[in-house]
Amino acid sequence: MTTSPEPAGTLSWRFVLRHPAHFIASGFGVGLAPVAQGTFGTLLALPLYWLLAPWLDPVAFLLLTALLFVLGVWACGVTGRDLGAADHGGMVWDELVGFLLVLFFVPATPAAQAAAFLLFRAFDILKPPPIRWLERGLPGGWGVMADDVMAAFYTLLVVAIYKFMVG
Q1: Per-residue H/E/C for 5-60
Q2: How many CA atoms lie within 13 A of 120 on its CB side?
Q3: Which residue has the higher pLDDT, 11 or 7?
Q4: Which one, of 111, 91, 107, lies nearest residue 42 by Cα?
């Protein structure tokens, strides 16, 4: 019995498990959520941060985040090519890495992390300039990953302005 290949753009467990890049880009399968894949990918950063942060000094955490970014460029590039969609909604590694960067800089309190989560999701969804340009203007996995780093930058900028204004 032969099975036909899945249509272009279809994300399934079968596809995710077919290649390590697909598994990584989908956030270990989190991108298979039926709705709000980016939100679930962002949420995946929380337990990962809580697990890693106590064990890594700041330099090691930032180096790990940079390594995860580079891994994401590769994984999202391969997965986007294989899906026929450069930034498929089921690819959530970019949200995970972007929000890990945010979590590194915001206070480790539930209120601060929740506010940062909402800000990050808003910037990732609304894509103010130059986020959309980064997403569309950079090739392959670079655009996928860079737009979420810029969303992280905007999130941290708002947090910094808030901290400056309230003391």
Answers
A1: CCCCCCCCHHHHCCCHHHHHHCCCCHHHCCCCHHHHHHHHHHHHHHHHCCCCCHHH
A2: 31
A3: 11
A4: 91
| Contact predicate 82/34, CB 8 Å | no
| Secondary structure letter of residue 132 according to DSSP | H
The whole-number pLDDT of residue 10 equals: 79
pLDDT at residue 167, as a whole number: 75
Question: What six digits make up the tokens of 29?
Answer: 């399968």
Q: Which positions ≥6 away from 108 have C-beta within 8 Å?
A: 53
> 39-70: string of b/e by CB count within 10 Å (b at 16+)?
bbbbbbbbebbeebeeeeeeeebeeebeebbe
pLDDT category at 40 given cuts 50, 70, 90 is very high
Q: Which residue has the tokens 């970019």?
A: 94
Per-residue pLDDT, 8 = 59
Cα gap 147→101, rounded to integer Å: 13
* Residue 6 vs residue 123, higher pLDDT: 123
Tokens of 132: 């959309």
